[in-house]
Amino acid sequence: MVERTPWLDALSHAILILGVSVVAFPLYLTLVASTHTSSDIVHPPMSLWPGSHLIDNYRAAWNGTGGGNGSKAPVGQMMMVSLISALVIAVGKITISLLSAFAIVYFRFPGRMFFFWAIFITLMLPVEVRIGPTYQVVADLGLLNSYAGLTVPLIASATATFLFRQFFLTVPEELLEAARMDGAGPMRFFRDVLVPLSRTSIAALFVIQFIYGWNQYLWPLLVTTNENMYPVVIGIKRMISGGDAQTEWSVVMATAVLAMLPPALVVMLMQKWFVKGLVDTEK
Amino acid sequence: MEKRVVFRSPWLPWVLMAPQLTVIAVFFFWPAAQALLQSLQQSDAFGGSVEWVGLENFRNLWNDPGYLASFYTTALFSSLVAVLGIGLSLLLAVFADRIVKGTLVYTTLLIWPYAVAPAVAGVLWLFMFAPSVGVLSYALRSLGVDWNHLLNGTHAMTLVVMAAVWKQISYNFLFFLAGLQSIPKSLIEAAAIDGARPWRRFWTIVFPLLSPTTFFLLVINMVYAFFDTFAIVDAATQGGPGKETSILVYKVYYDGFKAMDQGSSAAQSVVLMVIVVALTVVQFRFVEKKVNY
Question: What is this structure's pTM?
Answer without folding.
Answer: 0.84
